[in-house]
Design goal:
It comes from Sphingobium xenophagum. This is Lysophospholipase L1-like esterase. The protein has 397 residues and is α/β, with parallel strands linked by helices. The chain has 8 helices and 14 strands. Helix content is 21%, strand content 22%. The longest helix is centred in the C-terminal third of the chain and has 18 residues. It folds into 2 domains: 148 residues, Jelly Rolls, CATH 2.60.120; 241 residues, SGNH hydrolase (Rossmann fold, 3-Layer(aba) Sandwich).
Length: 397
């Protein structure tokens, strides 16, 4: 339950503009088609859900307490970081805004005689997440001090993310990916819609109808960030393997064409490298042909490039073999997937590349300048953990 003296919810509902006002004493567990507190809360945080149709929403939170200081981190849906460590003094009240994408698995059904489906092919893990449902879920973490929440529909451009486990909104601590950190680095005039999924490839993202779902929500002026490669290169996965010199760039170009046909702007992202050091303390290349293919397509097709492969190598080498494991999942045993610290570093690199190379998006970046060769320490990047923990590795490891 919330630990602040009072919690008020002011919900401007999408249908009819209805406003609901609640005080802390009347807060109830979440019920379908309503709103309330999710199970599992404790002194370090709680989750609150609001039934909403899919769409893009502005969330306005008022933080602070008359009787104590607060330190509030806010995450949305499957642990998308929205606000990091907003500190309030006793008696102080502040207001913060951010945008959230809400979606369900439903797709516009094809005609009876046409191939396709009416739902994204979600799996058991997806069904556990606060993503593919009919509600908006907000986590308030750290020393949360929440006075009010207001949610209202918004018309704003979106950055869609298509990718794999190194991009997706990871379901549980301690795993995390750069895509779920990016929202906290942008202003409240653009929304991040992370459709990436652990274990996905350029091919499987199509066959699971995830790309169809993404495209169904895409509008002119939106952006599509495309980052695949970790799983596409696996020849032991014969149904989804693509060759770096032929089929991989061909599929990338198909994604680019689909975005452009809808008036959206494609952006290519090279995959972050795995954490394998040689004897000289340099990162061993395991994705080179695929990263090179992305760079080549970007240059030939006039697509902005975010070279996260190069930046990740610089980050890991700057940390060194002894410290770099502290940025990775499973206490560093996982050499592919990150924890919140590592995800924040990679997202910082992405944000900096946006600032440096995409003029139309640069004004939306709010974080300080980031130099991959001089990453901050884990202490400097402390992020309040979410309520859900799991020792299961992300798919595709």
């Amino acid at each position: 339950m919330p630990s602040s003296a009072a919690l008020f919810l002011l919900l401007a509902a999408a249908a009819g503009g209805q406003t609901i006002v609640l005080n802390r004493d009347s807060l109830q567990p979440y019920q379908a088609a309503s709103h309330g507190v999710e199970p599992g809360g404790n002194a370090q945080g709680f989750a609150y859900s609001i039934a909403l149709p899919e769409g893009r929403y502005r969330v306005i939170v008022r933080l602070g307490d008359r009787t104590r200081a607060g330190d509030t981190t806010v995450k949305a849906e499957a642990r998308r970081l929205m606000l990091r460590s907003v500190r309030t003094r006793k008696g102080e009240e502040v207001e913060r805004h951010f945008l959230v994408d809400v979606r369900t698995p439903a797709l516009p059904p094809p005609p009876p005689t046409a191939p396709g489906g009416d739902r994204v092919r979600i799996d058991a893990r997806d069904a556990q997440e606060f993503t593919w449902d009919d509600k908006l879920t907000l986590e308030f973490l750290g020393q949360p001090s929440v006075r009010s929440i207001r949610v209202e529909p918004v018309t704003a451009p979106a950055i869609f993310l298509a990718g794999d486990s190194t991009v997706t909104d990871q379901y549980a601590e301690p795993a995390a990916s750069w895509g779920q950190m990016l929202p906290a680095m942008l202003d409240d005039r653009i929304v991040v819609a992370n459709h990436a999924k652990s274990g996905e490839t350029l091919k499987s993202f199509l066959t699971s109808l995830r790309f169809d779902k993404l495209l169904s929500a895409m509008r002119p002026g939106d952006w599509l960030f495309i980052q695949f490669g970790h799983n596409d290169q696996k020849q032991q996965w014969p149904q989804t393997w693509v060759a770096a010199d032929s089929t991989y760039p061909a599929y990338l170009r198909a994604y680019i064409a689909e975005a452009r046909r809808r008036g959206a702007h494609p952006v290519l992202v090279t995959s972050p490298e795995r954490r394998n050091f040689d004897a000289q303390g340099k990162i061993v290349d395991t994705l080179g042909d695929y990263a090179a293919a992305v760079r080549k397509v970007a240059a030939e097709d006039g697509v902005p490039l975010i070279d996260l492969n190069a930046d990740s190598r610089a980050i890991y080498e700057a940390l060194g073999p002894d410290v770099a494991p502290t940025a990775f999942n499973d206490g560093g045993k996982d050499k592919t997937h990150h924890n919140s610290y590592g995800a924040w570093l990679l997202a910082s690199a992405v944000a900096q590349r946006i600032r440096d190379t995409i003029p139309a998006l640069a004004p939306h970046v709010t974080t300080a300048t980031f130099a991959p060769a001089k990453p901050p320490t884990a202490t400097q990047v402390a992020i309040a953990p979410s309520l859900i923990h799991s020792d299961q590795r992300p798919a595709g490891n």
